[in-house]
Each structure stands twice: as structure tokens, then as C-alpha cells.
Amino acid sequence: MRYNKVSIYEFTKGENGMKIVVLAGGLCPERDVSLMSGTKVCNALRQNGHQAVMIDIYMGLPDLAEGDLDHLFEMDGTLLPDPVISSTEPDLKALRDKREALIGKDDSQLGPHVLQICRLADICFLGLHGGIGENGSLQATLDVLGIPYTGANSLASALAMHKGVTKQLLDNAGVPNARGRMIHKRDIDTPLEYLGFTLPCVVKVCSGGSSIGVYIPQNETEYKEALNACFAMEGDVLLEDYIEGREFAVPVIAGKAYPVIEIIPKDGWFDYEHKYQAGCTDEVCPAQIDEETARRMQNYAEKACEALGIEVYSRPDFLMDQEGHLYCVEINTLPGLTPASLLPKSAAYTGLSYNDFCELVVRESLKKYE
């Protein structure tokens, strides 16, 4: 399959570039991945000549003195070191305890001085995944305060984050997806066949990410365990038919679908460990599929983003069964943004470097505020 190579994204900037706050971390299971994305983005923006700083939105900057704000964006050319992503989810209780030891009891998900610093920026680059960073809550807060930010708006973020609502919008737009239904805690003892499903099936929380809270039970015991685990995280759970097939991702940037990527876990499925541990998954770009299938998948990806009102960039994921039927699994409004992540990897195939990709996201996001 051939793609027209795009020229390196040209941009103009002032002598010191823009003041950009990269927001990452947060109090959610995907914080470690977010910190890696945020680090890579911040370093790229610094290399592009911007005055970029990264902040963990949950921890904030508790030691920041009032006079430090004047010097916060001063550049020294230093690049941030890469954080470590564990093969297991982060210990959020330990994180809460750590912050409480620093600033005392505080139930806010935004740490000290976060919004104060965001007000000083020309734009905030959202390097967040999951939690308030992806469900529209943070976006709505920034909207109220008049602070520009990258990526989808608050409504589109909220719609895409809730997988049950997403399915309804995909159905209305004619984008195929796996048959599913929402169940509530009162349904926990309802036999699976009464709900219209058989094993194996997919059990997942409605607002999770990075395959956290997703289970594929093979028997009744595993099904009950999956329900209990999901209901411990959220009050709504989604049941879906299990689709056995190949996995794909289709980045969409500025309304245009980029080359399709095939995701091939070396064993099991594309869970948290396979997503973020080196050597666990092969990612083939462009995917080795015929052009008609690729175009069909790209068309569905663009239609899905349009249906949810997603601006700037996103990454719809798909499954293809043995008969070639396509199913949209979910739409990530803030997908991983390390250079090795799926979306930047697809952009790189068209000739867009990682640094220029980050610049493109900033420039496309600023168009929302023109």
C-alpha cells in the first residue's frame, strides 16, 4: 500500500517560542504511561524552541513560591529523564498517602498551583490518559477558566470515554461495533444467557483505558470474578460479544485517517503489560491488509470521530474477524504519545517526525480558539 509522504510540518515561532504547560500523571491507573507521554512531549516541545514545562496534575508543585512563577518558563535546554513504566498498574493509595504527607488531607484531583500555572501558558498540552484528563472533566475546567488546551473538547471527551454512549453514537453513524449491553449491579446475579450472551464474552468497565478493567472470561467462575472486579471500579459495566480476530489502530489527525497499524501481541491479548512493556507486542505499520479493507477501516475511523465531535487527533481501534468484518472497539481521545506509540508511529510513516507531530497538535489545537 502506498501513501504520499507529507512534508515536514513548517511552523513559525517567536524568539522563545510559546509558553506551554504539559499536563501529565494524575490519580488514575494510567498515570505512569501518561508521565512517559508527557516527558516525551515536553522534551520535543523544548527542542522545537518552546518554553515547555511538565506538571503532574495530581501532585502539582507544592513547594512553588510566589516569586518562582516569574522564572517557571525560563529554558535551560535540559531534557527530562524518562520515567519507568511498571508492568503492573500504579499503587494509587500510596500516591494519595504521598501527597497527603506533603500538603495534608485534600480530596481534589488537581495538585497545588496546577491551574495557577496553566493560566500563565499560551496553551496546555494534555499528555494525560484516562481519569479526569480524558473524561472531559479537566477540559471543562479549562474551558470555564478560558485556558486553551490540545485535543478534543470536553463534550467529545466525555462521550468517547463512556463506552456505552460511544456504542450508541457509532450505531447511529453506521460504524460497526460488537453487540453489547450495559448492565448494573442489580444484574450481577442474572444468568448470562438471560442477558443474551454466551461465554467467552467481554466484560469491561465503561470508562477505563489501557485495557485496565477489561476481562475475557472463559467460564462462569471467571465471569463472576470479572463482574466483581469491574463493579469495584465503576457502577456501570459493559458486556460485549467476544470477537476473535486481528487488532488494528487507525490514527485520525485533523479529520484525516493515517496509515492503519496492526497490533500483534506475542501471547494473550493487548492488555496493560503488552501495551507498555518492550518486546511484548509487534506493531506493523502500515498493516498488511488489502487497500480496500484499509480504506474501509479509515473511513469508519473518520466517521467515528465525526460522530463524537472529536477534534485535532484521536485513535479509533478496530477488530477484524476471520470473515473480514470490522468492529470499532473504542476511540481514544488522548492516546499514548511516546515516539513508539501507535499514533506517532503511523504519522512517522507518512514522513512526519515526532517533534513535528507534537508541533502539529499544538497548531491544530490553537485553531479551536481563533
Could you please describe the fold and organization of this structure?
It is a single chain. With 370 residues, this protein is an alpha+beta fold. Helix content is 34%, strand content 18%. The strands form 3 sheets. Strands 8, 9, 10, 11, 12, 13 and 14 form a 7-stranded antiparallel beta sheet that branches. Strands 4-7-5-6 form a 4-stranded antiparallel beta sheet, sandwiched between helices. A 3-stranded parallel beta sheet has the order 2-1-3. Strand 13 and strand 14 form a beta hairpin. Helix 1 packs across helix 12 and helix 7 crosses helix 10. It starts with 18 loop residues before the first strand and ends with a helix.
List the helices and strands and how they pair.
Layout: E1 19-24, H1 31-47, E2 51-56, H2 92-103, H3 114-118, E3 123-126, H4 131-134, H5 137-145, H6 154-161, H7 163-173, E4 180-184, E5 201-205, E6 214-215, H8 220-233, E7 236-241, E8 245-249, E9 252-253, E10 256-257, E11 261-265, H9 272-276, E12 281-284, H10 291-308, E13 313-321, E14 326-332, H11 342-349, H12 354-366
Parallel strand pairs: 1-2, 1-3
Antiparallel strand pairs: 4-7, 5-6, 5-7, 8-11, 8-13, 9-10, 9-13, 11-12, 13-14
Helix pairs in contact: 1-12, 5-6, 7-10
